[in-house]
Every structure is written in C-alpha cells, then in structure tokens.
Amino acid sequence: MQTTSATVDASLSAPRLTDVELDAISERFETWSATDIVGWTIETFGSRLCVAASMADTVLIDIATKVDPDIEIVFLDTGFHFPETLLTVRKAQQRYQLNLRVERAKPTVGDLFTLGTEGCCAARKVAVLDRVMAEKDAWLTGLRRAETESRANSAIVSRDKRGVVKVCPIANWSDDEVNAYILENDVIVNPLQHQGYPSIGCWPCTSKVAQGEDPRSGRWAGSGKTECGLHL
Ligand code: SF4
After folding, report:
1. Is residue 214 part of a domain?
2. How confident is the model over 7-14, as a mean pLDDT?
3. Closest-CA residue to 92 (of 47, 129, 124, 53)
4. Is 9 part of any domain?
5. CB of 76 closer than 6 A to ligand 1?
6. 117 Cβ closer than 6 Å to some ligand 1 atom
7. Which residues participate in catalysis according to the annotation?
8. How far is the CA of 138 from the centre of ligand 1 (A)?
9. 174-179 contact pairs (CB < 8 A, 24+)
10. Which of 76, 112, 130 has most ligand 1 atoms within 8 Å of CB, for mutation?
11. Hey, which of 76, 117, 206 would you mutate to test ligand 1's pocket, going by the most ligand atoms within 8 Å of its Cβ?
C-alpha cells in the first residue's frame, strides 16, 4: 500500500494518452497512493469513468467514494450471484449511498447450463461490461497482482481490449495490506470471505478453497478455466 502524496500532471489529458504515455503513467503510479491514483483518474476522465465492483469486498468502493461520493459504481448481476454477494451490494448501497448501476444481460440470454461456462461468462459478464464501456473512456477495478499467477504482471494503468483505459489503483497491494485497510476503515466484506471463499464469483462456478491453496482455485474448479474474460 503506497502512501506517497502526488500532484496531477494536467498536461496528460485523456484523448491524447498514447499507449507509451499510459505505460509511463502506470510506472509512475507504482509509488502513488490508491487515493491519488483514483483522484487522477477522476480528474482525467470525469463522468466517462466508472468503478466495476465485484462485491467480494468494498475496499475500492471505500477509496473511490472518499474521493468522489458520486462516482458511478457498476455491478454486473449475472443472475447467479450468492445471496451473500447481493447482501454486500445492499449493505454498500446503504452505507455509501452509492451512485449504483446494476447491469444485466437480456432475459433471453442463455446461461451456463445451455451455453457452457465460456459462453455464459461471455454473455452475462463480458458482453454486459462491453455495453457499459461503450459509453466510457476508463474504468477502475480492484484487480491485484497477488490474487493469482495470471494477474502477477498486471499494470496499474493499461488499455484494455476494448480500447478503454483500465486503472487498477490497488494492483500492487498485498493481501496483508488489503486486510489492514479493511480493519482500519471498517470496510464491508462479503461474508463468504470468512467461510472459505477467498475469491467469489457466481455460485455454480465457485467452490470453497482449503487453507494455503491458490485463492482463485475455487473458481471454475477442475475445468482449466481461470478467468471470466473481463480482464484478459
Ligand atoms: S461465473 Fe459461471 S454463472 Fe457466472 S457468468 Fe460465468 S459461467 Fe455464468
């Protein structure tokens, strides 16, 4: 968790940001606090920015709403969330008075039982986020390098596959730093975190994980699938 205070370079405005500039900003952000990174992102992208929230915990929501209480929070409702996750949404909404946007696939869209897990994630997560991002220039996400091997080299700032700028203000936080922030700020945490689910997705595709196992090994367990496609 970085605590360095930083000033915003106003010369780096969104439309002019090339991939080389994004790489340079990302490098610079390694020593910035998450709050300062969120502040830069809000100042740079304004209302064409949102936070994508998984509701495994509300660390990023806590950080972002302290910078801008009205920042748009997007929750993708796949139709298969655990009741505990939906409870976390309601608790966060109550506590932060969120500018919350819940997005769903069309009712006619198939599910994992008809499309398989790849098709279901594509239809109920990726396509829904694509629809949201069509009107955005940037998004904030709580993705962290420590979560799993495939995320170990994630940049703090990058251009995603849609061409939209993806900002991960806590990418370089360790698990201990997240837990410390949760304690210090009394952050709302999905109750499943304390019941053997360190990584929480949809109920048909999330299993309990034993102590010491890869935290994401409970996602699509035994299938070889490790990501829903939102980030890769
Ligand atoms: S995690 Fe499972 S239920 Fe959720 S969108 Fe993906 S395949 Fe469907």
Report:
1. no
2. 47
3. 53
4. no
5. no
6. yes
7. 228
8. 24
9. 174/1, 174/146, 175/146, 177/1, 178/57, 178/59, 178/144
10. 112
11. 117
Quick check: pTM over 0.85?
yes
Q: How many domains does the chain have?
A: 1
What is the residue with the minimal CA distance to atom 2 of ligand 1? 205
Distance CA 122, CA 115 (A): 9
Cα 80 to ligand 1 centre (Å): 7
Tell me: pLDDT of 224 over 90.
no
Q: Could you give the residue ranges of the DSSP H alpha helices within 16-155?
A: 19-29, 34-45, 59-67, 83-96, 112-121, 127-133
Is the model's pLDDT at 4 over the cut of 80? no
Q: Considering only CA atoms, which residue is closest to atom 4 of ligand 1?
A: 202
- Separation of 121 CA from ligand 1 center, angstroms? 5
Cβ atoms of 9 and 29 within 8 Å: the answer is no
Q: Using a 6 Å cutoff on CB, does residue 230 contact ligand 1?
A: no
200 in a domain, yes or no?
no
- DSSP count for the chain of H helices, then E strands: 7, 6
Q: How confident is the model at residue 148 (pLDDT cuts 50, 70, 90)?
A: confident
- The CATH number that applies at residue 124 is 3.40.50.620
State the amino acid at position 22 in one-letter form.
Answer: L
Residue span of the structural domain in which 148 resides: 16-195
Q: pLDDT tens digit string along 180-218?
A: 999 999 999 999 999 999 999 999 999 999 888 888 888
**Does residue 201 lie in a domain region?**
no
